[in-house]
Amino acid sequence: MDFELKSLSPIQAASQVCDALLVLVPDASPDKRATGALPELVASVIRQGDLDSGVGKQLSCYRPVGFKSARVQLVRAGDGSAASVRKAVLAGVASLKQPGVKKLGLVLSLFGAGADAVRAAVQACAEASYVYTTTKPSAKARILQQVVVGVGQASAVRAGFDAGRALVTGVEFAKEWANRPANHATPAMLADAARKLGRQRNIKTEVLGPKQVEALGMGSFLAVARGSAEPLRFIVMQYSGGAKGSAPVVLVGKGITFDTGGISLKPAPEMDEMKFDMGGAASVLGTFAALAELQPAINVVGLIPSCENMPDGLAVKPGDVVTSMSGQTIEILNTDAEGRLILCDALTYAARFKPHSVIDIATLTGACVIALGGVRSGLFSTRDDLAQALYKAGEAAQDPCWRMPLDDEYAEGLKSSFADMGNVAGRAGGAITAAKFLQKFTAELPWAHLDIAGTAWKSGAAKGSTGRPVPLLLQYLLDQAAAGKARPAAAGAKKPRKTARG
Ligand code: BES
Ligand code: MN
Ligand code: ZN
Question: Which CATH entry fits the domain spanning 2-152: 3.40.220.10, 1.20.1260.10, 3.40.50.1980, 3.40.50.920?
Answer without folding.
Answer: 3.40.220.10
